[in-house]
Amino acid sequence: LLAAVAGAALAEYPEKPVTIVVPFAAGGPTDKVARDLGDVLRKQLNQPVIIENVGGAGGTLGAAKVAKAAPDGYTVLLHHIGMATSPALYRKLPYDTLNDFEYVGMVNEVPMTLVGRSTLPANTMPELMKWIDANKGKINLANAGLGAASHLCGLLFQQAVKVDMTTVPYKGTAPAMTDLLGGQVDLMCDQTTNTTQQIEGGKIKAYAVTTPKRLTSPALAKLPTLDESGLKGFNVSIWHGMYAPKATPKAVVDKLNAALRTAMKDPEFIKRQEALGAVVVTDARTGGAEHKKFVEAEIAKWGPAIKAAGQYAD
Ligand code: MLT
Questions:
Q1: CA distance linking residue 74 with residue 245, whole number of Å
Q2: Is the pLDDT of residue 314 over 50?
Q3: How far is the CA of 150 from the centre of ligand 1 (A)?
Q4: Cα(first)–Cα(last) distance of the chain, in Å?
Q5: Per-residue model confidence as pLDDT tens digits over 294-310
Q6: Alpha-carbon dihedral of residues 294, 111, 230, 82, nearest 10 degrees?
Q7: How much is the pLDDT for 2?
Q8: ipTM attached to this prediction
Q9: Which of 16, 25, 114, 193 could make an SS bond with 276 (beta carbons 3.0 to 4.6 A apart)?
Q10: CB 286 within 8 A of CB 264
C-alpha cells in the first residue's frame, strides 16, 4: 500500500509550485542563475517555480532553511561554492553539507572579476597594486558575507597581495554593487554575471579576471588574469548546484534531476548564461552523485586555503 501511495504521489509530483531558495539577495549572481533556471524548469515541471531570497551569513541561512524544509521536493536550494567553503569558515554550521541534503546536480561555472569604484585613481592592475600599497589600512572590500563566493575571492586576493582590507559584508552582491556604484566601497571580487553589464556601461572599473585563462566575451577579453598580473596561480571559478532536503524521495530527486539536465541543454538558458560569462555544465556532474563527489573534493580543496588565510566566523 505504501509503495502504491508513494508511487501515486510521485506520479503527481509536482502537483503545486516548486520553490527555489536563493541564499542571497535578489538581483545578484546566484539569484540570476536561479531565475534563468526557473524559467526553463517551469516548462519541464509544468508548475510555477517560485524564487525565495533568504540572504545572510554568506548563504548559510538560506542553506539551513532548506536543510530543515519538508523533504517533499517543493523546496530546493540553488547554491554555489559556498557549500564547500562554509565548513571551513563556521565553527558550527546549522547543517551538515554532505549529509543534510540530497544532491540534485550541478548547473554552471562562472568566472569572477576584480572590480573597483569608477572614481578609483587606478586603471590597470599595476596601477591598482600601487594604489593598494599606498592605501594600506584604508581600503574597503565588499562581499556577501563569510561563505560567499565574493568572500572567498576577496580573502584569497588579500592573501596574495599581503594587504588586509576592511571587508564590508552585504546580503548579496547586488546590494554590494549598489554601494560600489555609489563609491561607498573601493573594491569587490564578483561573478561576471553581476559585473559584465556594469563594466560594459563604464560604471565600474575592471582590473582582472580570476581564471587561469583570459575570458573570450567582448567586454572582458581585454582584462588580464590575476595570474599574469603577478598573483601567480590565482584561480577561482564559482559553480552553482541544486540541493533538496535529506530524505526527499529518490524518485522525486530523479524527476528534479531530469528536469535540470533538460534545462542544461535549453538553447535559451545556455544563451543567457553565456552572455554573462557563465558556462553551463553538461558533463557527468549534472548527476546528483557526481555533483556530491565534486563538492566533497571542493571541501577538501578550499578548507586548507581558507584556514591558511586564517579567517573564522563564530
Ligand atoms: C556571492 O558572492 O556569493 C554571490 O555573488 C552573492 C550573490 O549571489 O549575491
A1: 10
A2: no
A3: 6
A4: 48
A5: 999 999 999 999 988 86
A6: -50
A7: 72
A8: 0.94
A9: 193
A10: yes
Alpha helices in the chain (DSSP H): 2-12, 29-45, 60-67, 82-89, 125-134, 149-161, 173-181, 192-200, 250-263, 267-275, 288-309
> Radius of gyration (Cα) for the chain, nearest Å?
20
**Ligand 1 atom at minimum distance from 153 CA:** 2
Instruction: Report the predicted TM-score, pTM, of the whole model to 2 decimal places.
Output: 0.95
Closest atom, ligand 1, to C-alpha of 82: 3
Nearest residue (CA) to ligand 1, atom 9: 172
Ligand 1: which atom is nearest the Cα of residue 28? 9
Pocket of ligand 1 (CB under 6 A): 24-25, 28-30, 82, 144, 148-150, 172-174, 190-191
Q: In residues, how long is the chain?
A: 314
Instruction: Give the separation between CA 109 and CA 262, rounded to whole angstroms.
Output: 17
209-265 confidence digits (pLDDT tens): 999 999 998 889 999 999 999 999 999 999 999 999 999 999 999 999 999 999 999
Mean per-residue pLDDT for 275-289? 95
* Ligand 1 centroid – CA 268 distance (Å): 23
